[in-house]
Amino acid sequence: MRLKISLLKEPKHQELVSCVGWTTAEELYSCSDDHQIVKWNLLTSETSQIVKLPDDIYPIDLHWFPKSLGVKKQTQAESFVLTSSDGKFHLISKLGRVEKSVEAHCGAVLAGRWNYEGTALVTVGEDGQIKIWSKTGMLRSTLAQQGTPVYSVAWGPDSEKVLYTAGKQLIIKPLQPNAKVLQWKAHDGIILKVDWNSVNDLILSAGEDCKYKVWDSYGRPLYSSQPHEHPITSVAWAPDGELFAVGSFHTLRLCDKTGWSYALEKPNTGSVFNIAWSIDGTQIAGACGNRHVVFAHVVEQRWEWKNFQVTLTKRRTMQVRNVLNDAVDLLEFRDRVIKASLNYAHLVVSTSLQCYVFSTKNWNTPLIFDLKEGTVSLILQAERHFLLVDGGGIYLYSYEGRFISSPKFPGMRTDILNAQTVSLSNDTIAIKDKADEKIIFLFEASTGKPLGDGKLLSHKNEILEIALDQKGLTNDRKIAFIDKNRDLYITSVKRFGKEEQIVKLGTMVHTLAWNDTCNILCGLQDTRFTVWYYPNTVYVDRDILPKTLHERDASEFSKNPHIVSFVRNQVTIRRADGSLIHISISPYPAILHEYVSSSKWEDAVRLCRFVKEQTMWACLAAMAVANRDMTTAEIAYAAIGEIDKVQYINSIKDLPSKESKMAHILMFSGNIQEAEMVLLQAGLVYQAIQININLYNWERALELAVKYKTHVDTVLAYRQKFLETFGKQETNKRYLQYAEGLLIDWEKIKAKIEMEITKERERSSSSQPSKNFGLKH
């Protein structure tokens, strides 16, 4: 990826350009010390003077009023705030009319920023004050004041906090009075510029120490650049939070959100005082000290999938290379390319007005349809369909271009969604809420309606990243997520009535990805790269989960690596310095998944015998129990030396009825309540009581016996025997109450138990004459 620079031969301004701002993706306003505001039209390459300001107004900063969120059609920004050296800020219309000038600070107003909703404006000045104003320019409050000038300011993603500079310090101050203020030393020189992105929640800072830095919203350092030759005068996030631009003397740099640099350009600009990204995130404009306005296009983005590599060579041209036969195809577009995604044998490209869907089998005939909004900020793909996110909403389309659904929820803000907060599978869409970060919304892909009974997935901590598995049945769909403590959890997305269990899979997990062909999960855990070959094991047999993992040392990936993709048996990881590393994992677990999904149990056993690996046998054991195939489970458990489990499976085989077998298989997986329910529904009350006695659930055993008026004496007898073994006296009031005046007759109890077992056998043989469950003729 690099920047394609365009600079006019002759400047349009007479003095240094102090600030720039985009109204649409093709129109820019620039302000200069020559008191002129100039409009640039990039389609026609024309410039026109909008207004000449009074001679005492030297503009310093400009920010366009934000477009209202959720508006269907792309409306243009209609007015902007301009701060100036005379201590005022001016609200100016698009046509150049000064609507209002407000006395704001003593000395120059160094920066002014609208919040994301457009309901408030923050200004900072040489007098060290930070002031909050209403939309119409009425003073609401003075948020803070200090003895040093405040050079730059930015709103937090929720518009509830403000980030500002104080010499070498950065300060985050919430708008609520008495709320905790966060302050830290960020640079060794005065900080000149800050920016805070609403999508990734990361902070950028630039200073006179010639460095730019990336921080998280808690003030923890994520990246610090090497010192440049000159102070860094400007930094700005791209709208989607994936890239940022850095400006210095004769320098423009394009960087990834993790800090490493994609491209360094050395245009003849003087110092770049201000950088603005276009609304669609495809180009930047810089306000230059030598009277120029510099424009730079982001080109040569790359997308890879299996043997295909797609490169954006120009604004409207892509090159597709098949690395197997070196065949090259050129794709031409009518408008400039904004976003693209290559996965599941399809390339989806959104331009400013249309969406193109290419199949990797045929690059010549794309499917084209018009877009509702225009600026697509995110494309996600699944095997059957893809998702587009723009300013107006979330839209799901099939690869044939058919609109499928558009999920919605109260307070939805599509402008802050990214690949970590939205996930798509063949039947489910998951979206992490921004208002309450502990909640995940789940939708049916086909209808866009909430999944199941409409219950939300709620967690005890804030969730950072979510990912749906891609294969298998809808009822078995799982979602994995990482929370604020960097713990990895997994849970089922089907939520009917009963609260689904959220199970912890790992700790200190920084990044994760599901495989595209089977439900294998990989993640980077602290200093280890971990692959969960069968994550479902946590629901089947927790004890053998460690045996189903593959782990290797991850110290070679350095700090903060990120998993880019997990296709077939290859994992692609991007290191903090931007380099890509490819890791191959064993292909056998994927083949095992395939056999099991087709119920080819004999083939699965044969594969495990061929590979001779404990992880394979452990996966097969869990898969067999999950699919109720106890014969295969017995072989697999024997292979990994779990003798107690083999014996238990053998005892299950000898049970008289299928309900009892099912209940004991559920108990094997730890689902005690479900096992009890199966027995009670089948009328096997004694067996339900017996499993509670075996598990020493004394309270529940007595409760069932009393409720169904049967075997109360059996429960009391076993309880007495249990207490005698340990030499204890009965203290439970309920047991004392029912034991009063009751004599335990073991002969009678044994006869009753025998009768129950005989009854179960008879019932089983009469309902299933062709199959004799454990009965020998």
UniProtKB/TrEMBL annotation:
Domain IFT80/172/WDR35 TPR per the UniProt entry, residue ranges: 616-762
PROSITE patterns, per database record: WD_REPEATS_2, WD_REPEATS_REGION
Cross-referenced Gene3D superfamilies: 1.25.40.470, YVTN repeat-like/Quinoprotein amine dehydrogenase
Residue spans of the WD repeats: 102-134, 184-216
Pfam families on file: Beta-prop_IFT80_2nd, TPR_IFT80_172, WD40
PANTHER family reported for this sequence: INTRAFLAGELLAR TRANSPORT PROTEIN 80 HOMOLOG, OUTER SEGMENT 5
Protein name: Intraflagellar transport protein 80 homolog isoform X2
Species name: Vicugna pacos
